[in-house]
Each structure stands twice: as C-alpha cells, then as structure tokens.
Amino acid sequence: MDIIHLTIIDREDFIHLLEAPVDMGLNLMEICKASDLPVMGTCGGMALCSSCHIYILSDHTLPEKTEAEENMLDQTFSVKPTSRLGCQLKISPAMNELVAKLAPESD
Amino acid sequence: MIETDIIIIGAGPCGLFAVFEAGLVKLRCHLIDSLPVPGGQCAEIYPKKPIYDIPGFQEILAGDLVANLEKQIAPFKPGFTLGERAEKLEKTEDDFFMVTTSHGTLLKAKIVFIAGGLGCFEPRKPPIENIAYFENKGLDYIIKDPEKYRHHKVVIAGGGDSALDWSIFLADVADEVVMIHRRTQFRGAPDSVEKLMHLAQSGKVRLITNAEVVGLRGLDKLQEVVIQQQDKENLVLPTDHFIPLFGLSPKLGPIADWQLLLYKNSISVNTLDYSTNVPGIFAIGDINDYPGKLKLILCGFHEATLAVQAAYRIIHPDKKLTFKYTTVNGVEAF
Questions:
Q1: Of B79, B141, B87, B74, nearest to B116 (Cα)?
Q2: Are B208 and B178 in contact (CB under 8 A)?
Q3: What is the mean predicted confidence (pLDDT) over B77-84?
Q4: Helix axes B161-170, B190-201, angle to 10 degrees
Q5: B118 to chain A: which residues are within 8 Å by CB?
Q6: Which of A33, A77, A79 to mutate to test the interface with B (most CBs of B within 10 A)?
C-alpha cells in the first residue's frame, strides 16, 4: 500500500479527507501542515511543543507514546486519553482510515 | 538610552551571527531578547539536540552552536539587553528608530534587524475561563520573589522540573503548598521527584495527581481553585495563589503591531536584501517569509549577511562598501 487515507477534523469541526504516502518518512503533523490545516508544527517535529496535539477518534493501534511525547503532553492542556502528538506518529499502512481531531490550540 | 548602528531584536543564532557580519564592516550591534540568555530556540527549546546541517559541522549540539557563535562575535563587543521584550518600535524625528523594551530600556539606531525566530517565549497559560482577570491578583506565571508567598496558601500546577522545584522550595515558605498534576508520574529530575515524595509523605506538600485546575474563583483577588479529578467529584480548594508552571511557548507578540507586512505570523521580505516594507527594518531567520523560504539556521546566516550589506549602504550612503574576504583581512576586533 503506497497511499493511506486519513480523516482529520479541524477545530471548526470541518472534515478533511487526506491522502498520505507511506514511503516518504512523513508524520501526521507534516501531512496536516502540507494539507494547509492549522497545525503550526512549531518545533519541527521534535516533541518539544504541543502545536500538533491531536485526538485519535478511531480505534487504530498506534505505537506507544515515548517519554518525550508524554513529557510534552504534560505541558499542554485539554489532554484526553486519546491525545497524541501528530509529529510522533509516522505515516504507516497501519494508520489507513485513521480518524483524528485537532485539539484546541494551547500554544 | 543605548545608541548603536544596528538594533537586533532576537539573540538566537541568526541574530548572533548578524553581529559578526556587521562587525566585519565595522558596524556595531546591540541585541535584545526576552530570554535571560542568548541562543533563542537553541537555548530554550533544544540545547542538547544535535544539529546535522550546520555547514562545517557533521554534528553539533544546539547549545554548543550558540556558545561557538558567542565566541565568534566577541571581538565585535555586542551589547545585550536580555530578559526584556521589545515592545515599541517607532521612528524618531531625526530619522532613526527607537525601540522601547518591556522594562523601559530605550535603544536608538538607524537600522533594526528583526531576528525574532518564532516570537517571544511566554508562559503557557491554562485555558481557564477568566484566567486573565486573576493575573497579578493571585495568579502568577513566574515566581520573582518567593517571599511573596510566605505564610500564604499556594497551589502549583505542572509536572516538570519547575513545578517540582518550586513546590519543594515553597514548602518551607508558604503555609500550605498543594501540587496538582495531570498524571501520577513526574518528568523532573529524579532527585527532585524523590524530595517531593518525602514532603508529600510528611504532609508538608499536598499532592493531588490525576487532576487539573479547571476553574478560578474570587472577587477582587483569587480565593479558590476548582480542581477536576479523574473519576471523582470536583474539589474546591481555598488558596491565595495559583502558579501554573507549564513551560514556555513562542508568541509573535508586539512584532504584530509594528506596521510590517505579515504573512501567517511571518514578516514578508524582499530577497534582494531581506528588507521589510519599512525602509531600515530587516527581518532574518525563522521570523521572515518569502517564496521558497526554508526555516533553517543556515538560511538565516545567509540572510543576515546580505542584510548587513544593505544596512551599511543606508548608514553610510556616501561610502562605497568594498567586498573583502576574511582570509585576506582577518577579523579586526573593535
């Protein structure tokens, strides 16, 4: 599978259907930014800001959070059990049909 | 009042390197930064991260890059105003720029370089309704004088080094310290975590985990905090102070009010010399935007170099700037 499909809901509850290549080493934050969604990606993907904070709404199994991701989520707000940092989620076939919602801006 | 040739707003790597290029053509610089140390994002966000795309360095830690730049520019004796934010940028009657900082420091120069990166680092503020009302009325984002909290009740929120260290310190100052954290694990130094646990066991600090502050109440000042707890009812705690410690994040701040052409929080520039729409003001590094812009330190270095050439022509319109290689002339310190 070279392309996966993602559904991202923005902060105004508009639904965006995105396609993402699995073979370019991209992460979810980069896909959102490239699709002109309002994701700043301030730190460039180092889990050092929380501008790519996202809620995972579908029941996909994703890699566990690293300590860096947990630490960064500690410094942001509106955190839920479904919270992740988009920059820490590498686009992979396992994410096909993922549904996620952008968390409120806190940075 | 500080007078110089170039006021550089932002002392990150690009602002620092601009001092070097300016020094080569005998222009003096003074840098302003809201952080208490030079280095910008490299110092504040990722000092221990290796950078792999600084020319000449296979790998260099961000903090080491800043240290190297400080050594490189030392011969040109730059001035620094640190821990202050550039608030106002105005034109004077004699055709200079006057910058006023948050502490009232005045700086005057013919040229301003805005090397503000992503903006000023400001404390992250919890999304609590009416939080702005309680600022300086019991709510503090920064602890300037711990004595302020002596014999008072304090609620601290956060799970990192800052929250841990202040909870430990204020345990001997305040009458009551309550620390609120969203998780049960802390991300600070292990020693600090251990100390906090001892204080919690001895009752000197009340630790409430799996919780967060969701409300603030009070008439003319803060009197209560509302704490949301996982799987429990909300808790209302009387307090005199609430100190949320959630790190810093960058904001464009006053730069947005300086009549500069902006595009998505970046300053639009002319790629001829990285000048903005205001003659005499240049923008270099991550703060600027142009077709094809890459937010890389090495791009900022290049932009600083070209901006300095244009700055020289404004400051010395009657002089011809002869391009010289450092291999020929070396570095002549001020």
A1: B87
A2: yes
A3: 96
A4: 40
A5: 42
A6: A77
Pick the residue from chain A with its C-alpha nearest to B123.
A107
Position of tokens 């009387």?
B238
Does the interface ipTM go beyond 0.85? no
B205 contacts B167 by C-beta, under 8 angstroms: yes
pTM for this entry: 0.82
User: Distance between CA B279 and CA A57 in Å, rounded?
Assistant: 50
Tokens at A3, concatenated: 């392309």
Q: Which of B126, B187, B249 sits opposite A71 (nearest CB)?
A: B187
Contacts of A89 by beta carbon, 8 Å cutoff, 6+ apart: A27, A28, A29, A62, A63, A95
Residues B276 and B283 sit within 8 Å (Cβ to Cβ): yes
Could B118 and A107 be called an inter-chain contact, meaning their C-beta atoms sit closer than 8 Å?
no
Mean pLDDT (whole number) for B154-166: 91
- Per the CB < 8 Å rule, is A44 touching B45? no
Whose structure tokens read 């902060």? A11
- Is A76–B246 a contact, with Cβ atoms under 8 angstroms apart? yes
- What residues in B contact A39, CB-CB < 8 Å? none
Sign of the alpha-carbon torsion through B148, B154, B155, B156: positive
How many CB pairs below 8 Å do chains A and B form together? 48
Q: Helices B13-24 and B297-315 meet at what angle, rounded to 10? A: 40
B97 is written with which tokens? Answer: 């720029």
Q: What is the 8-class DSSP label of residue A104?
A: P
